[in-house]
Write a structure and sequence with these properties.
By secondary structure, this protein is an alpha+beta fold. A 12-stranded mixed sheet has the order 7-8-9-10-11-1-2-3-4-5-6-12. Strands 13, 14, 18, 19, 20, 21 and 22 form a 7-stranded mixed sheet that branches. It starts with a helix and ends with a helix. Bound molecules: 2-acetamido-2-deoxy-beta-D-glucopyranose (9 copies). One 2-acetamido-2-deoxy-beta-D-glucopyranose binds at residues 236, 238-239. Residues 136-137, 243, 245 line the site of one 2-acetamido-2-deoxy-beta-D-glucopyranose (NAG).
Length: 632
């Protein structure tokens, strides 16, 4: 192989020499040939190294090939999510493929297609109400936005220049080098650790990110990639083609976000991505304001100022965010903000953590809805405050992850509550089953769903427990778990609308039926960074786009509020919850709530009267011992 290449170069050299001697620039060309010869002793890939404008730094090239095949596990400890992945990376060709859950979900990144590249996601869909053989693959795509590099997606960082060597260690029984990248941003410490085998050929063992909030002395983010295998890969185009029987051409639908098309990007991004976004924002800003800078240094200087002095509403430059949170907290509002795991996200990424769809026109389906007439309950019987958590009627807070599945958490929260009121048993129901199986109801997996259709679907089919169905994946999976699999189903007898814009009706619904399916507006930054207190941002509109669960109400200093369970993990807000002011129907919370009913009659019952309060479960994700080894 090597000999052949050298022969080629020599042959080529001869030809060049002939031309060169004619041109009488011999000396210069001899120097060039020596260069080429030296480089040819390395791998093929080294030859193009200096042509690439990509991200790869020297340390990367010292350790890893630019074409590789890798398998491993992505773990999100806070979200209880473990995603096995397999990746094929063809860096120099701007292509890659990453499969999750052993090929169940495939993502393909093709920089060579479309205007700036196209991202594909191929996921199972399900066409029947009941698990059967009616699974088929569906394909979604997303054109790469102009401001993103049209590159493949690596599962290891490609620019290691900010990583410092810290020690030699043994990891999984293998001697390895540990590299670290640490930085602090708005009182958050971020540590990225990267473990590479000492033995050659080097391969990555682990990449870990731990984010710690100094102000709140708590974690705000943690994820781990463990690499199981890693080897050079000789490019094979057929692996990067769309599966033949996937219907991407005909049925292609666009994905809203490139993070849905390519979830790994969320864990591999830092700096570079953000810089591209900054450049774009800055370009927009310049265009809007008609600014031109004549020299490059002036451009950079201005950009720097812009970055640190940003006041536009949709950018999260670090200076801006820090200032934003501090200034909001200084306003002496009833609620406080704190940077959380969403602080690094763009608007688009945050939108992923929603996923509520609305009917253009609500279908009237009498058979599924039940009459709920709040006026038969005397409001003077309604307690001053209620928190269904106190009665053990609410399951622990979950995180929907990078998946627009809020509608499953909201709907199932009410079904879990109804089941509890009927049986006294608190059962965690399966969000994943709704994602995988409720397509026929018109839901769209991780791309969003409808609350009323979901309750209708649950009424018709029942829903299994999380334990029976299996873990939450934050991606679409194959619909499974039928009666023959011994999965037990929980049913509801129906659901009902609660009168709009009427807080008494919502209270009655809560008191008599348990937690209520609700929707709200979640556009404001103040909502994203809410920490505690009664949330009352007048800018929070009435247009609802996020599904949540109302679990109670109360009042502090005569300011009445709703208690809302979100699905953004327990690190968000007040242990995953938020109190929202009742007055002015803040955030549109009374805009179309739904209740789930587990029994057909006695709507005006007060289950509270017969229930005892139970101690709340404390949230512990890390043991003391584990906490002590966190490197801060
Ligand atoms: C790697 O990152 C550093 C710092 O972020 C940057 O200065 C450098 O240009 C990057 N290298 C490449 C090859 O992109
Ligand atoms: C990869 O993308 C870069 C721009 O991001 C481009 O300059 C380069 O030519 C592309 N390489 C291939 C092989 O398409
Ligand atoms: C698509 O084709 C592959 C290979 O022919 C096959 O294994 C797979 O089951 C097919 N998938 C569907 C959903 O038809
Ligand atoms: C950052 O954290 C320190 C304590 O570690 C605290 O004293 C300081 O006020 C915090 N700064 C901001 C801006 O919150
Ligand atoms: C490329 O991959 C396909 C699909 O896995 C395989 O069938 C084929 O043999 C591979 N080709 C080469 C040259 O390795
Ligand atoms: C920062 O923004 C403020 C308000 O927009 C402006 O008055 C100030 O001049 C800016 N500072 C710089 C250095 O551009
Ligand atoms: C609700 O109940 C009240 C009092 O019983 C009654 O007057 C009213 O007509 C009922 N409304 C509906 C829509 O059934
Ligand atoms: C279902 O339960 C029955 C009885 O407990 C058992 O014999 C059978 O193997 C179970 N089936 C599955 C698929 O687990
Ligand atoms: C909601 O109710 C309040 C008073 O309770 C009223 O002022 C307001 O107009 C109502 N809004 C809508 C949209 O019905």
């Amino acid at each position: 192989m090597k000999n052949k290449k050298e022969n080629n170069i020599t042959a080529m050299g001869k030809r060049i020499l002939i031309v060169a001697s004619v041109l009488m620039v011999l000396a210069g060309l001899v120097g060039m040939l020596l260069e080429v010869h030296k480089m040819s002793q390395d791998t093929d890939l080294t030859l193009v190294k200096h042509d690439i404008v990509g991200d790869y730094d020297e340390l990367y090239d010292e350790y890893f090939p630019r074409h590789y095949h890798a398998t491993g596990l992505l773990t999100l400890p806070f979200d209880d999510i473990v995603e096995p992945f397999e990746a094929w990376f063809a860096g120099d060709r701007n292509m890659s493929r990453i499969d999750y859950y052993y090929g169940m979900d495939k993502t393909i990144q093709r920089g060579d297609l479309g205007k700036h590249g196209i991202l594909f996601k191929i996921v199972p869909m399900h066409s029947e109400m009941k698990p059967s053989n009616k699974d088929f693959m569906s394909c979604w795509y997303k054109p790469v936005p102009k401001w993103l590099p049209r590159a493949g997606q690596s599962v290891i960082p490609t620019n290691l220049s900010e990583f410092k060597f810290v020690s030699e260690e043994t990891h999984r029984g293998m001697p390895c080098f540990k590299y670290e990248r640490k930085y602090k941003r708005y009182n958050k410490s971020n540590v990225y650790s990267f473990y590479v085998t000492k033995n050659t050929p080097h391969r990555p063992l682990r990449y870990e990110m731990v984010g710690y909030d100094d102000m709140l002395t708590s974690h705000y983010d943690h994820y781990v990639l463990d690499y199981i295998s890693f080897e050079p890969w000789s490019f094979n185009r057929s692996l990067l083609s769309l599966p033949k029987n996937s219907s991407c051409d005909k049925k292609a639908k666009k994905l809203r976000s490139h993070y849905l098309a390519n979830p790994m990007a969320e864990y591999m991004h830092f700096k570079h991505h953000k810089d591209y976004e900054l450049d774009k924002t800055y370009d927009d800003y310049k265009a809007t304001h008609g600014k031109h800078y004549t020299t490059a240094p002036e451009h950079e200087r201005r950009k720097h100022i812009f970055k640190h002095n940003l006041s536009r509403s949709d950018d999260d430059g670090e200076g801006f965010l820090c200032r934003y949170i501090r200034s909001k907290n200084r306003e002496n509002l009833n609620y406080k903000l704190a940077p959380n795991h969403m602080a690094d996200m763009t608007e688009q990424e945050v939108n992923l953590h929603k996923g509520l769809l609305h009917e253009k026109k609500l279908k009237k389906s009498k058979s599924n809805t039940l009459a709920f007439n709040e006026s038969v309950v005397h409001t003077d019987l309604i307690p001053h405050q209620l928190d269904w958590r106190d009665y053990g009627a609410v399951t622990r807070v979950h995180s929907q992850g990078l998946c627009g599945s809020c509608w499953t958490f909201s709907a199932l929260g009410a079904v879990e509550g109804a089941h509890f009121l009927k049986t006294g048993e608190l059962l965690e129901l399966s969000n994943q089953q709704l994602i995988d199986c409720s397509w026929p109801a018109g839901n769209h997996g991780c791309r969003g769903g409808f609350q009323d259709r979901t309750l209708r679907w649950v009424k018709r089919n029942g829903v299994t427990s999380r334990r029976d169905y299996g873990p939450y994946l934050a991606q679409e999976g194959f619909c499974h778990c039928g009666k023959s699999d011994n999965c037990t189903f929980t049913h509801i007898s129906g659901f009902s609308k609660v009168k709009k814009n009427n807080s008494d009706a919502l209270k009655v619904a809560l008191v008599t039926h348990g937690p209520i399916v609700s929707s709200m507006n979640s556009d404001q930054k103040t909502f994203r960074f809410y920490s505690h207190g009664i949330y009352d941002d007048p800018k929070c509109g009435k247009k609802t786009n996020h599904a949540v669960l109302t679990v109670g109400y109360g009042a502090d200093d005569n300011v009445p509020y709703w208690i809302i369970k979100n699905s953004w993990g327990h690190l968000w807000g007040d242990d995953g919850y938020i109190k929202i002011a009742m007055n002015h129907d803040r955030c549109g919370l009374t805009n179309g709530p739904l209740l789930a009913i587990k029994k057909d009659s006695s709507i005006a019952e007060f289950p509270l009267k017969t229930l005892n309060k139970v101690p709340r479960q404390s949230i512990t994700f890390y043991s003391e011992e584990e906490l002590s080894i966190i490197p801060f």
